[in-house]
Amino acid sequence: TKKSVSTSVVGMLELVQLEADLIDSLSTYADELEAKLKVLKSFVPKLQAESNEAVTQMENYVSNPINSFSLIRRMHEDWHDWKIFMESSIGQSQVAFLNKAKLQFPTKTDLNEASSSIVRLQKMYNLTAKDMARGVLNGKQYEASLTALDTYAMGRYLNKQNRDMAREWFVVTSELLKEQTPLTPLAGEREKVLHLFAQAIFDYEYYSIALSVFDHALLLANKTANPTLLSKRSKFEELARKEAEVVEKTNSKIKPSEFEIGCRGQFKQQSKLLCEYKSELSPFLQLAPVKVEEVFLDPLIMVFHDVLTSREIDELQQIARPLLKRTTILHNSGVETVHSSRIAKGTWLTRDFNNLTLRIERRIMDMVDLELSGSEDLQIMNYGIGGHFEPHYDYFEPDDLDEGDNNRLATLLFYLTDVEQGGATVFPVLQQAVSPKRGAALFWYNINANGSVDPKSFHGGCPVLVGSKWIMTQWISNNIS
Ligand SMILES: O=C(O)CCC(=O)C(=O)O
Ligand SMILES: [Fe+2]
Domain spanning 108-249: which CATH class is it, in words? Predict the structure, then answer.
């Protein structure tokens, strides 16, 4: 089954539970091993005592009918039982569970996607590998950290595509290796682990990092005078010296894009346009006035605050959760494909799905004073960590449309969640960024009053750094027909 786990927070929840179950299973395995061992440890000394006595005075021992009877009986019966005991295998059910669980394990593709998310976040938010490894995200300390095995995997992933970034992760790996022993049953003793890592990093040709790990291994095992190891070390050292000259030359900084500046919250703060209560337009708004924030005037961009209640949002999420599928992007050719430019899970929901969606349909029309007939269904999306939507136009290029086809006149984007860090909607051309706020809705026009498309509506969803971003989108058609 093709199922991507890292693209949504929802998908990750199942993995957390699965890992907890696997650890429980491993713990049961340990208990069973221990129980078996306990039987052995308590019985063997007693058997030995009896046997020692027999061996030291053999003839005397077997001359006694009681002893000889007992010996014959033991050999005839008890050793069969020991054989059965020894052969009884432990962990069969746990191994079976592991085999079943394996079907749900993330694949190589999942790991690659998760790695590329980390890289995206690193680039987008200017994060250092060192900070990330220690759980510091944008200056905020979280209760999270990476192990040497994690950072090593990042280095390996980046090795082929960006050696500078890979180097950064390998440096962090070497530092972590000095503090911790990797938690893997196959790692073996500490000194051996360090040598393995040193050699692997050496093979990737990051010589000075390999050298520092190697040195730590020597120090730890008190082998700084071992001739074989020292000759190997000198090989490491020579290559490290040559490497230093090359590394110095690189390190060029590229200018950030407007999108990146926006995602980092670095647009010049426009003086907040007045918040008003829109009350005359419709009966709904008279009953329940809505707080409207004008973000931009030409083209019009605004935020409606508190237009969905928490209960309504909970219900929407409940409906969507089991339906979420990896989102695709629509090509000019009409073909939908999964693409790294849009990483999220989503589902479509017809507006007549139930009472709630019907109520929302009514509310949307009241809010924006536009007809919805002919518009696409509602779309609900969940972005996982690093999930994003690169800047794009919501409208279709007129050349790609047939006579009489509708275009996306406007977009109404409901935020179903707050996002702790990242995840803003950014308009790079207009230099505007809007942060998700649970219950609010962002509205903008993609098409000018004269019917032409408006390239200034170019926008994107920034990568989620911390949190789970849920949105619901209603693209509003211009209803040509
Ligand atoms: O997630 C966002 O903030 C933007 C989403 C978007 O542009 C879209 O779904 O068309
Ligand atoms: Fe969009």
Answer: mainly alpha
